[in-house]
Amino acid sequence: MLERLEARSQLEICRLPLWASINHMEGWHLELPGTAAGQRVETELERRVAIERWASLGSRVDQEIANARNGLRQGYSSPRPVVRKVIKQLDGLLRGPVDRSPLYSPAERSDDAAFRRTFGGIVEGPVRLALSRYRDFLQTEYLPRARETLGISSHPDGKACYAAFLRRHTTMARSPEEVYRLGQQTVGRALTEVAELGKAHLGTSDITEIVKRLPQDPQNRFRSEEELIAFSRNVVASAVGKSRSLFVKLPEQAVHVEPFPEVQRGSGRSAHYQPQLRSDQTCLLPHQFGGMANRNTRQRRLQQCTRVSQDITFKSAGLYPGRATQSRS
């Protein structure tokens, strides 16, 4: 806990509220479909709270725009490729009729006809107006002034910010230069091993040829989105079964692999773990066919089975033991 607090304090130099929420991986707008799906509407009070909550989305957007403008004035911004992906994600949220929107979920789950009409009007009116305003701000005002470089070294105190992020994600006080040297050594050893394996199993030690040929093997590929989802769910079930004999008590919440929402497919977001606050709700692990390489399902690209297994294990570690325990050793 102390390490997390100290690392978080060190991150203050990054001025994250001024730019970091414009993010195609973890931006605030990506939370909206999950928030809508988890919105309780069983009682009259819950329905009233839902109406008030979603009708006020414009205030959140106004604050996000104000923060972003302040960031631009002080030299902070998200990279242009990231901004373009966020705009694409917002276009997805705004596309289609209101009753097909993922934000319509509270109304869809309610038997109260008056609430359904009121909430639908909020999604169609204030919510869409707020998201459209945010989208237009990013397109016309923010994007032309966003930074062209990907690295945060172009920000004020960018190098110190990078070091702070490094500590936050590794819990170690290594310098960026030290980590880079360690990475070069690790990759060098891995490439040597890959070349040896390629020579033994494929008859070639050329790394480029090995990388090219491995995805072409039908045994390393999925033939459909349905096969990918079924495989991923089996990985989770296997992890649960093998964990029972190793731990006294497992979490009560289940984890379930789901396809990506249509509005997020092909937008650059990768597979991720979506927790739920209530113990009676299922934690979600959205996945998409070809998602490891940020590809659209419709492109029918193929994905290596081993990489999916690793990704499922990594993302669900917050629910079932395994990687989290290893990372602390």
Output the structural class. mainly alpha
> What is the number of helical segments per DSSP (H or I, 4+ residues)?
13
- Sum up the overall morphology in one term: globular
Major beta sheet summary: 2 strands, parallel
Instruction: Please bin the fraction of helical residues.
Output: 40-55%
Strand order of the largest sheet: 1-2
Q: Mean pLDDT across all residues, rounded?
A: 84
Instruction: Report the uncertain regions.
Output: 289-304, 321-329
Give the domain tally: 3
N-to-C series of helices and strands: HHHHHHHHHHHEEHH
Radius of gyration: 22 Å
What is the end-to-end distance?
16 Å
Overall strand count? 2
Strand content bin:
under 5%
What would you note in describing this structure?
It is a single chain. The protein has a two-stranded parallel sheet with strand order 1-2. The chain has helices at residues 2-10, 31-38, 44-55, 57-74, 80-94, 105-108, 113-142, 158-170, 176-201, 207-213, 225-243, 305-315, 323-327, and strands at residues 255-259, 283-287. The relative contact order is 0.10. It starts with a helix and ends with a helix. It is globular, with a radius of gyration of 22 Å. Helix 3 (44-55) runs parallel beside helix 7 (113-142) and helix 5 packs antiparallel against helix 7 (113-142). The chain is mainly alpha-helical and 329 residues long. It has 3 domains: 2-155, no CATH class; 174-216, no CATH class; 219-327, no CATH class. It is 54% helix and 3% strand.
